[in-house]
Amino acid sequence: MIRYRSTNRFRRLLPWVCIAAAVLVFWRCRPLSDAEQKAAETLVECTSYYVLSADGKPLLYFTRTDGNQALEGAAFSADSVSKDIQVSHAYWVNRFPLVPSCRGRIVATAFDRISPLLSARTDLYQAMQDEINRLGKKVRQRQGMVAEMDYYLKTHNVQDEGYNQIADYHHGMVLDKDSLSRVLKALKTVNRASLLQLKYVARYQVAPVPYGKRGRRIPLRLTDKAEDGTYRVLRTLDRRLPEGVSTRMSLSKGKQLIRTRRPIVLVPRTGAIQDSTGVYRGEYNARRQPDGYGAFSYTNGNYYEGGWTGGERDGFGFSVTTIPTLKVGEWKEDRYLGERIVHRSDRLYGIDIAKYQHEIGNKKYGIDWSDLRITSLGTMSKKTVSGEVDYPVSFVYIKSTEGTTVKNAYYRSDYLNARKHGILVGAYHFFSTYSDARQQAASFLKNTRFQTDDFPPVLDVEPSAAQIEAVGGSAELFRRVRTWLEIVEDSIGVRPILYVNQTFVNKYLPDAPDIMEKYQVWIARYGEYKPNVHLVFWQLCPDGKVNGIHGDVDINVFNGYQPQFEEFLEKCRIRR
Question: What distance in Å separates the CA atoms of residue 564 and residue 467, rounded to the nearest whole number?
Fold first, then answer.
């Protein structure tokens, strides 16, 4: 009786079981809709690096190798090595088509960058010797870049735009240089007898979509090797499907989509972009062009951090190159304009004068040395000023001589009055291409006063292109300039300053790298942006206004603040 009832019940339920099975088969086997495919889409992020061991002990960590097999991102420990990050399209998949069987399985594009150095045919010892040469060059480049930033930090303070960014990057560059030096030292310990081994270390995780969004990253484990270089299969460490994810995509369907490279539309706002020129990290637009604020590390060692618009440097930023050159300031359409300084009362301003401050037309004027105040920085260019222009005159340079025959009739009285009123004073000589350099130096030394605490003498060099050509070119001009500078320095014991204009700097000064390196520069540049050279004074304008002086006056600003000014006075003033 009981058996009859059970059989009867089974017969009644059998049609419903068949219908349910048919529905399940239909639901599981029907083609995936676009919405279901999109729901299964995800991203897999691979973070990898290499470990080079010598005799079983880790020796060097690096990110990857470039086309020349040079090691990129070499470091002394796994914590400090820059990881190589790659992102792959992926799909959550089921192992079996009829029953839920994902268990955290993912099929993803194969994206491993295996270095050619892993080849058994590679001579790792020779590769290390090549790397020693490359690292030596890189360390020297870093030293030059650090020196450029040292100069910048020395002549600026936290009130200057970009100071904190330069300070941060400088700190990182010093650490990088020191790390590379230690790596270089370690590599030099390797010899032919050492057993060298190279290991590839990779970690995988599911990344949020869209990429760059903050969110949980789920660790993954590789379950098989890449097949024909098209895909990899991975799974979550706990073998469970993450909460909120459901899929009925089969493994074969996932592999098919991966092979056809069905794209995922990503609209990130921040992240990393890498191409043959380097790596960009920061904000970018829908066309994956740098847009906003970001940093670009170029493969040649150069670096830029700051504003971008449509893939071009734009706005405020700084660039440091391996030449080395440091550019801090405004950029427009990928072109460097210069540093725009803010003029404030905490900067140190001075003037330079000649007979033209005493003789205007047919009239002669004196100077009221007790009431000197700078009230205008001129009108020839736009300047950014904080507050009112009302600055004391911290120093004055007075023209003493020109060529071998011209003397400033007002030099002596102006010099004595400046010292009497406690104003730091110096003298300059206007260089002539028509006179012998030795005779010009003799004339300057004979007609100029040099007392303790005076500013170093200045040689004003501003010949025209025709005059330079007439003396035989820039090489001959600089030979004469060196003669004057060396004679004056030997005579008074202080190295002179070289006064030039921006055109001369651009066109001729690079022909005399020894002069650029040895002598401080005072430059005339009547523009909005600060000259991008190592200078001590910047002549801002020829049409400034000073209380106590009739007519226009050249206004100058010291390149630095009070601490740097005191250092300049300690090192460069005349001691007798």
Answer: 37
